[in-house]
Design goal:
The protein has 337 residues and is mostly helical. The chain contains 14 helices and two strands; from the N terminus they run αααααααααααααβαβ. The chain has a single domain, classed as Tetratricopeptide repeat domain (Serine Threonine Protein Phosphatase 5, Tetratricopeptide repeat, Alpha Horseshoe). The chain is 47% helix and 1% strand.
């Protein structure tokens, strides 16, 4: 499959030092190409999420065992409404690096699949307690939306009331305010919602919730010797993925994702073109998942899949139907990404 074009001004050095370090398990040339696709994915996420998704998929095909690659794929899938795929990728990231920082996105993806009760369950998990102040606030916004999805509007407002003022500063405070207005509107209290929104500058609110594209792109350059950084690979053997242990995947959860996406209760699809990128195509790469510990929401044991290589990760065996919903994400944490 042809890869999306890399902009002439894109450079491997535009990745931060930690991200570059994560790519050292790849060969020098492959690491640079993966890095360039990650740069493009980050650059395009807010202005052209579909193209950002294509770049993330190109990176996965080249380096599907690297956590930051799967992270980019999961975030791009979320921003394009591919909620089942986003869940799979972000679960993979959690297993690869042990971080739960994307729990708010995972919870909102559950909402997108028509499963608000699962979003609430994630917020009540032990993992949620490991989030920082921003993560806790983002998750609370998602839970408020999930409560509203279930028709419990008083509880939706109560969740937002419990957010400490010190946790919601700047744009995040505006996003909490917008989430409260959405909850009031859903409860039939439109006048209160309008009065609340009238207290803030509309442009500031649009910027905070990601309703407008940034005026200009800001690129942070980390000055370093790129050749020397990549050249360290010449002294260290690159990982041979073909010798790795077989990885396992969340086949049971993915099957539930498929069932939920096809059910009448799931969110209405607004992007029929997702079928071209469905997880059963050769371009998908979930077989890099390493299930050393089960997810809290797992119902049954995972099944083993053969492992993938950096250059051609295996296709996911599940045929998940992707779901897109504007309604489910109008107060979503990813809206301001």
């Amino acid at each position: 499959m042809p890869e999306p074009e890399i902009a002439e001004d894109a450079s491997f050095s535009q990745l931060d030092k930690d991200a570059r370090g994560r790519l050292r398990g790849l060969s020098k040339d492959n690491a640079e190409q993966v890095g360039l696709h990650l740069v493009m994915a980050g650059r395009l996420l807010d202005v052209n999420p579909e193209l950002a998704y294509e770049h993330a998929q190109a990176a996965v095909r080249r380096g599907g065992r690297v956590d930051i690659v799967r992270e980019a794929a999961g975030i791009a899938a979320y921003h394009t409404g591919r909620f089942a795929e986003a869940l799979r990728e972000l679960r993979t990231v959690r297993r690869l690096n042990g971080s739960s920082e994307h729990l708010p996105l995972m919870a909102d993806a559950e909402r997108g699949l028509g499963r608000p009760e699962r979003a609430i369950a994630l917020a009540a998990s032990d993992e949620a307690s490991t989030l920082d102040a921003v993560g806790r606030t983002e998750l609370a916004i998602v839970v408020s939306g999930a409560r509203a999805d279930l028709g419990d509007h008083d509880a939706a407002l109560a969740v937002l009331d419990k957010i400490p003022a010190s946790d919601a500063q700047g744009d995040l405070r505006l996003r909490v305010l917008q989430a409260r207005a959405v909850a009031l509107e859903a409860a039939g209290r439109g006048d209160e919602a309008s009065a609340l929104l009238a207290t803030v500058n509309p442009k500031d609110l649009e910027r905070a919730i990601g309703a407008t594209a940034p005026d200009e792109e800001v690129v942070v350059y980390d000055v370093y010797d790129e050749d020397a950084d990549l050249g360290e690979e010449d002294d260290e053997p690159a990982e041979d993925d073909e010798d790795d242990e077989p990885a396992e995947d969340d086949e049971d959860e993915d099957a539930e994702d498929e069932e939920s996406a096809d059910s009448p209760d799931s969110a209405d699809s607004a992007d029929s073109a997702d079928s071209a990128d469905s997880p059963d195509s050769p371009d998908s790469a979930d077989s890099a998942d390493s299930a050393d510990s089960a997810d809290p929401e797992d119902d049954e044991d995972d099944e083993s899949n053969p492992s993938d290589s950096d250059s051609d990760p295996e296709a996911d065996e599940d045929d998940d139907s992707e779901v897109t919903t504007d309604e489910a994400t109008k107060d979503a944490p990813g809206a301001s990404a």
